[in-house]
């Protein structure tokens, strides 16, 4: 899964995607994967976690960059 995310990120950078477009593509992929889960409760939890907006994404990224 991580390799796929890195590949998508790399391809998006080469294609000139904006960070917002990249986030939407990643969310779409994650939602597709969530729908494949057999357990309904786990599927719902997964879908909720994939619905974060761009501002939440930026805040989480900034937090991760801090030492």
Task: Note down, in words, how this protein is organized.
Helix 2 (19-35) packs antiparallel against helix 3 (40-49). It contains four helices and no strands. The chain has one domain (2-65). The chain is mostly helical. Helix content is 79%, strand content 0%. The mean pLDDT is 82.
Secondary-structure blueprint of this entry?
Elements: H1 2-15, H2 19-35, H3 40-49, H4 54-65
Helix pairs in contact: 2-3
Number of domains: 1
List how many beta strands DSSP finds.
0
Number of helices: 4
Which residues sit in consecutive blocks of at least 5 with pLDDT less than 50?
Answer: none
Mean pLDDT: 82
Characterize this entry briefly.
It contains 4 helices and no strands. Helix 2 runs antiparallel to helix 3.
Search tags:
4 helices; globular; mainly alpha; 67 residues
């Amino acid at each position: 899964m991580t390799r796929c995310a890195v590949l998508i990120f790399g391809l998006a950078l080469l294609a000139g995607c904006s960070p917002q477009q990249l986030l939407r593509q990643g969310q779409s992929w994650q939602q597709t994967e969530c729908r494949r889960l057999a357990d309904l409760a786990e599927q719902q939890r997964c879908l909720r976690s994939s619905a974060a907006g761009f501002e939440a994404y930026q805040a989480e990224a900034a937090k991760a960059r801090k030492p």
